[in-house]
Amino acid sequence: MTKYIFVTGGVISGIGKGITTASLGRLLINRGFKVNVVKIDPYLNVDAGVMNPFQHGEVFVTHDGAETDLDVGNYERFFGVDLNQQSNFTTGSVYNEVIQKERRGDYLGQTVQLIPHITDEIKRRIYQIGKDTDVDVVITEIGGTVGDFEMLPFIEAIRQMAMEVGRGDSLFLHVSLIYTLPNGESKSKPTQHSIRKLQEFGIHPDLLLCRTSQHLNDSVRRKISLLCGISEEFILEGLDTKCVDEIPLNFEQQGMGHLVSKKLGLERRATMDAEWIAMVDKLKNPKHTTNIAIVGKYTTGSDAYISVQEAIKHGGIANEADVHIEWVEAESLTDYPNIDKSFENIDGILVPGGFGDRGIEGMILAAKYARENRIPYFGLCLGMQCLVIEFARHMANLKNANSTEVDEKTPYPVIDLMLEQRAIADKGATMRLGHYPCVLKENTKSYAAYQQPIILERHRHRYELNNDFRSQLTEAGLAFSGVSPDGSLVEIAEVIDHPWMVGSQFHPEFQSKPLTPHPLFREFIAAVLRYQQEKTESGEGS
Ligand code: GLN
């Protein structure tokens, strides 16, 4: 019998429902339960694929090629599993399906309505996850804030589901904000209102998680309990913290895992907290600290590169290092001597993925600087393409080499649109998406990282290294250390005469997890620490 947990949010958006959902999932997994999860986004976009990462954060790609909300990345990292196409859906995709059914005549002449047709489709999708994966618990997170118009069909659907499966087998978790006034007073009124709003729709939260900047005091807890009808022990706090990986442990300390299992009648089957505790311990007690630069289009404060940041952190865990990130805006990067200043105190450079031409010359400059100064460099997708363009221009004598995404008339299109992309006009879900096998070449830095001949990595791109230039680039000293099994697509390029300069056409960051750091990130950070060490030693010597 599958149990269903529904997570809603109140008062403000961006309150941390995603991390709360991911943390709760982890606690249940630590108790030996099988858990699956789905994120619902109440917007009309069919998926996150064509949404602006600056506004909406990163587009996370699953192994089967879904372009999803970044919360799916949080779930994968916390659960330690791979999710799929079913793990995220939007209002747009639900309507799309219902309208297609209507056009096919599947509704046999009925009037097609919000209730029951849209709500039934929502319920069908959530139930399907429970059926398909034979899990103990399905957690459903509803994006947005209670009271938003666009959330209503989802709220109604989960209300009906809780009734259908029974209140003993369902649980509503509401995440809300306790506001702290400048004088330090905690205010619970907005939270009370958001709970009342939920109650108006027939949903009574079983568990309340209060996001707060200071400990929840007894009087606030008592007040909420009395006025909203939630027993005090089911009111927990989610204190602000810099270390998201610590959150499951904070929740466990407050008894969240116990309370949820008790409410759902789940008997603990195992105790598997040790690994997570050891990981957080490593994270909080690093032996080394180091600085790397991310040279990208979007900088600090955005979630546009969240998986990259997380994967860097994981690379740090594997090397017992705290890796500090300096954000360098690609557009503002200029050549020597200014560039020295931009990379002062930097021990590694990473250029992440991206689209369009903005900032590309800055990224190419960063690759050149890394190559010339023998600083470890890691290029992800667009960052790999920049590595190749730079190498072509300055090492293979291909002046003005470029990607045709940036310059259609370049004399040397070293990066070009993939053949199968040429006839595609639509932008949504039409890239090369999801995981593909890649064959590694022995005696390369990539092989040394993975220690295996064939890997599977996730992609999201339209452009690719142009095979017409392979031999010229090879002769100039670039190794194509990873290629598709038929040899037609270059998946990894690395500079042979360099301590660690590697670019992958795929996005390794999507597969990195705190308990299993990605091999390329692990080796990148190891190279960063070696570089730092050598720099310190030569500085001491001079
Ligand atoms: N814009 C490049 C392409 O489409 C790189 C994509 C990316 O970095 N995800 O190939």
Structure, explained:
- It is a single chain.
- This protein has 18 helices and 23 strands.
- The N and C termini lie far apart (69 Å).
- It is globular, with a radius of gyration of 25 Å.
- The protein has 542 residues and is α/β, with parallel strands linked by helices.
- The strands form 5 sheets. It has a 9-stranded mixed beta sheet with strand order 13-12-14-15-23-22-21-18-19, with helices on both faces. A 7-stranded parallel beta sheet has the order 5-2-6-1-7-10-11, sandwiched between helices.
- Helix 1 (17-30) runs parallel beside helix 3 (70-79), helix 5 (114-133) crosses helix 6 and helix 14 (360-372) packs across helix 15.
- Glutamine is lined by residues 353-355, 381-382, 405, 460-463.
Structural shape: globular
Mean pLDDT: 95
Strand order of the largest sheet: 13-12-14-15-23-22-21-18-19
Q: Please count the helical segments.
A: 18
Approximately how much beta-strand content do the residues carry? 15-25%
Radius of gyration: 25 Å
What is the end-to-end distance?
A: 69 Å
Largest sheet: number of strands, sense, barrel closure: 9 strands, mixed
Structure class: alpha/beta
Overall helicity: 25-40%
Low-confidence stretches: none
* List of distinct ligands in this structure: glutamine
* Topology, number of strands: 23
Describe the structure in brief.
The chain is of the alpha/beta class. 38% of the residues lie in helices and 22% in strands.
